[in-house]
Amino acid sequence: MRSSRVAAIVPSARLRVACLTRLERWKLASGLWVCKLRLGTPIIPPVMMKAAYIRANSVTHALEILGDRWVLMLLQQAFFGVRRFDDFQRRLGLARSTLTHRLKHLVAHRILERQALDARDWRFEYRLTVKGRDLFNVALMCERWQRHWAAGEGQPVLRLLHRDCGQVIEPVLVCATCGDPVHARDVSYCDGPGASWIVREPRRRRRSSIDGPAPRKVQVSGELLELLGDRWTPQVAAVAFFGVRRFDEMRSSLQLATNILSDRLKRLIELGIFATRTYQERPRRLEYVLTGKGLALYPIMLTLMDWGDRWVANEAGPPLLLTHRPCGSRLVISVVCDHCGGPLLRDNVLPQFGPPPRSTERRFA
Predict the structure, then answer these.
(1) CA dihedral of 9, 13, 15, 21, whole degrees rounded to 10
(2) What is the Cα–Cα distance from 145 to 40, expressed in whole angstroms?
(3) Which of 52-66, 144-158, 226-240, 297-311 is most confident?
(4) 65-295 has which fold?
(5) pTM, entire model
(6) What is the pLDDT of residues 168-177, one digit of tens each?
(7) What is the DSSP track for 336-347?
């Protein structure tokens, strides 16, 4: 890696520490630069002098790929068995150029693969890869949250039938070691072997690109799309699970512009994810505390982190290691049936839409 020596005084304490080391960068598939400290010549890459950088975590890595409203809806349709371009367009009502761009994005990240229908035909279909199918737990946790906190009136109800026990079930996130449900207060964190600093490459997307209701044929609530389909909104919510509650701490942790952070916090309060609490009267300062609705997002964040650890973390390993306090073991998550306790897999879960449950049935692809 090419780099230049620093002759000037480094203004930041963090960069002064970095001056005593050699920084090696490599680019992840998600478009992030990872900077890891190693002993060597005291240098600072020019990018570190100009760009803001934050601690790496697999939720951030995953959201760099998945944090887009149309990407989320495309993935839902792919799990329901939609494979052809025209079928995606008809169900989502997307412009052909937008749909083409999102499909290319998912193919580039190996979540979908493009397969020719016939050697003599130019038509293709898009199938979930192993990496894409591994997002099933994320989809289950999103459905659980939506059912409890964002179900719209008059919309079809999605029920999940577990074939192994024959019951309409509720997916539950548990510790694979002890079998107990996992709650945010029961998990502690420490740096993992992949702990590092990341610098994002510039990516511009107007907030208006995530606004607006979901198409009628899509069983995803507008609230869920707004929470996960934006670059910054889910990350602002995620840092609260690490105990970051104050405005300045959030801005420092995420390296966000003040106006962007203010806008996201205001919207998260409107959605009922955060509530404010005064911790200083003069001048008046507020803390942002997760509500019950906000805490219910924790299983989604954990499944995103679990997926990110497997597929988009750097070669050294996961950036964070989680410990389940009740049993004292390293946390390995599993999604199980609330009736029989059996694992929920794509092959043994059947989605059913609306009453009566047997009116419409589709198998996951």
Answers:
(1) 100
(2) 48
(3) 297-311
(4) Arc Repressor Mutant, subunit A (1.10.10)
(5) 0.80
(6) 999 999 999 9
(7) EETTT-PBP-GG
